[in-house]
Design a protein that fits this description.
Number of strands: 10
CATH architecture of the largest domain: 3-Layer(aba) Sandwich
Strand content: 25-35%
Distance between the termini: 27 Å
CATH superfamily of the largest domain: P-loop containing nucleotide triphosphate hydrolases
């Protein structure tokens, strides 16, 4: 079994009287797809924000490659190797795919912003961008303006932008949201391929996709872990059936 690359210990975040993440403990291993599911409001996106530095926890630890990164800025966490995508598409719509990935790669430089220097002038950035497009399956679309592509391709591009930052760990927040079955299938294959080299936290509502490729599954409810384990073990858990499906009579 591969080593743990990311772990949370007693991770807690509240917003006033609302406990969004409550004493959450989680382990994700290298080259593993760890899917996280749960009803709306379960705390899934808050968890991804805590891991990626978009939010600061009230207490607890986020240990990445042996280092507690809880409370570090999102930029610092990105530089340490955690790449994160968002629920809503987050691309530069009037730029080409290559330009989008080049800008993403440039953002990870120690001095990334120079007003009078174009990102294309950095040869290494272009190489990183080209490699990212190859990984996400859009190399043949490198010179296409992002706004002219299908929604599914735009979501692929967003993953490509994450890969251009050269992460060692991925946090993907509903990358299939709003997709049709054909587009979702392409992303499933992309995630399957990425898991050969990356540890992945994958927040998702598409249960068929989760069950087809997840190595481990965590169910969240009211900010806490309701169940964790293999897909087969979790999907047969009566507490999960009741909480996630209501009356427990239906099957995943």
């Amino acid at each position: 079994m591969s080593n743990v690359i990311l772990e949370t210990k007693g991770l807690t975040k509240n917003f006033g009287g609302v406990m969004a993440v409550d004493d959450l403990c989680l382990k994700v291993r290298e080259r593993q797809i760890h899917a996280i599911i749960g009803p709306n409001g379960a705390g899934k996106s808050t968890l991804s924000n805590l891991i990626s530095g978009m939010l600061t926890p009230c207490s607890g630890k986020v240990i990445f490659q042996g280092r507690d990164i809880a409370g570090l800025s999102s930029n610092k966490i990105s530089q340490l190797g955690i790449g994160r995508s968002f629920q809503r598409t987050n691309i530069f719509s009037m730029f080409t795919c290559l330009e989008n990935c080049s800008l993403a790669a440039q953002s990870r430089l120690r001095h990334s912003f120079q007003l009078f220097r174009r990102c294309e002038s950095y040869v290494d950035l272009r190489e990183k961008a080209e490699n990212a497009l190859e990984l996400c399956g859009l190399a043949h679309r490198r010179n296409v303006i992002a706004s002219t592509m299908s929604y599914g391709e735009q979501r692929q591009l967003e993953i490509g932008m994450v890969l251009a930052t050269q992460p060692s760990f991925l946090v993907l927040d509903e990358p299939m949201a709003g997709m049709g079955s054909h587009e979702s299938g392409r992303v499933v294959e992309l995630l399957r391929m990425l898991s050969k080299n990356y540890g992945i936290i994958w927040i998702e509502h598409d249960m068929d996709a989760v069950f087809s490729i997840a190595d481990e599954l965590t169910v969240m409810l009211n900010g806490r872990v309701l169940a964790n384990g293999s897909v087969n073990a979790v999907r047969c858990n009566p507490a999960v059936q009741e909480a996630y499906l209501g009356d427990g009579e239906e099957e995943f």
